[in-house]
Design brief:
Elements (H helix, E strand, L loop, with lengths): L7 E5 L4 E5 L7 H17 L10 E3 L13 H13 L13 H13 L3 H9 L2
Parallel strand pairs: 2-3
Antiparallel strand pairs: 1-2
Length: 124
C-alpha cells in the first residue's frame, strides 16, 4: 500500500478471515478488500465453492507498534513468526522495543533458531 512500508496480510483458512497487520496502525481496509476480491476471482476461475465474500476482515489493534519510520520489517517478521507458531502476536510485550526485536532476530539468525522451526512447521 505504501512504496516504502511493509505490512502483513494473513489469510486464515481455518477461521475464515483475512487479517491485516501493520506496525504503524494503518487499518488496511482497502487492501483487504482488494485481496478478498482477487481470492474470489481465483476461486471462481478454479470453480471452488468457497464463499469468500462471507469471510471476515480484521485489523488487530493491540499489537506492538514501531516508533520510527524504519523498523516496519522487524515488526512484520515478528508478527509472522508468532502467527506461524500458532501464537498470539498480542501476547508480545506491548512495550517491546525495536532494539529488543532487532537483537532477538540477530540471535535467532546467528544460532539458526528460525530455520529448525520452519523445517518442523512445514514438514507436518
Amino acid at each position: 500500500h505504501l512504496s516504502n512500508h511493509w505490512s502483513l496480510i494473513v489469510i486464515d483458512i481455518q477461521y475464515k478471515r483475512i487479517e491485516y497487520y501493520d506496525s504503524l496502525g494503518i487499518s488496511g481496509n482497502t487492501i483487504m478488500k482488494h485481496i478478498q476480491y482477487l481470492i474470489m476471482k481465483i476461486a471462481k476461475y478454479e470453480k471452488r465453492s468457497e464463499k469468500w465474500n462471507s469471510w471476515r476482515r480484521t485489523h488487530p489493534k493491540n499489537i506492538p507498534r514501531q516508533h520510527n519510520s524504519s523498523d516496519c520489517g522487524i515488526y512484520i517478521c515478528q508478527y509472522a513468526k508468532w502467527i506461524c507458531k500458532r501464537g498470539n502476536p498480542f501476547s508480545l510485550i506491548p512495550s517491546f522495543s525495536s532494539k529488543k526485536m532487532r537483537e532477538l532476530m540477530i540471535t535467532e539468525m546467528k544460532n539458526e533458531l528460525i530455520i529448525p522451526f520452519l523445517r518442523k512447521e512445514f514438514n507436518k
